[in-house]
């Protein structure tokens, strides 16, 4: 896959231009390679697209880069979008996520703050900023943002699960289990919720409850048609590892 190159943003342009695939020009007199011709053809094809089609193409590339772990590329493309469309909260939020994956906490926080300035009632952005706080063990600010996300949208299951996990990381297992119980009330229990509740019961010494939750989580993964294959595989391995540790602890004299 050819890489995308950011267009010089200092050049004033009347229309939005997608960062194009740029061919390397060889020495004079030499016939261009097939890859160079292909890149020029792609560049020419991009010029025929409408502004909306260009944006869709660019956002699709950003999503693919993020899924492949190519965060630096995604950041460059999101920065390009932000330069041309500075009023889009989603672009700041998504770039904040990329910075967070790279553990560049201050940059991530700045983007989440800007996203919330543009869209102050976005529960998903409060959840993302809370995750950023939690990653730095700033528990109180994390819990405050999870509360804000849940106040805006009581059915935000990710925020509810993350809030419970934060209480667990703080060693407050009863509070964590209470959060999981409330989450169960607001939505259908999914594999992630069951797995994390099982882990909390496990660490809290409720081994029978943990074993039950791990089993339910694995069963939910087998029937979950919504969860992405990669996410399902990661969660399955995690639950199996926790379950193995639980069984090992139970066989000790």
Can you walk me through this structure?
The protein is an all-alpha fold and 253 residues long. Helices cover 71% and strands 0% of the residues. Helix 5 (105-118) runs antiparallel to helix 6, helix 6 (123-135) packs antiparallel against helix 7 and helix 9 (173-186) packs antiparallel against helix 10. The chain is globular and about 65 Å long. The N and C termini lie far apart (56 Å). Mean pLDDT is 83; it is low at 1-18 and 20-32.
Q: What overall form do the CA principal axes indicate?
A: globular
What ranges have pLDDT less than 50 throughout 5 or more consecutive residues?
A: 1-18, 20-32
Instruction: Report, as a whole number of angstroms, the end-to-end distance.
Output: 56 Å
Assembly level: single chain
What is the SS-derived class? mainly alpha
- SSE pattern: HHHHHHHHHHHH
CA-atom Rg in angstroms: 23 Å
Q: Level of helix content?
A: over 70%
How many beta-strand segments? 0
Strand content: under 5%
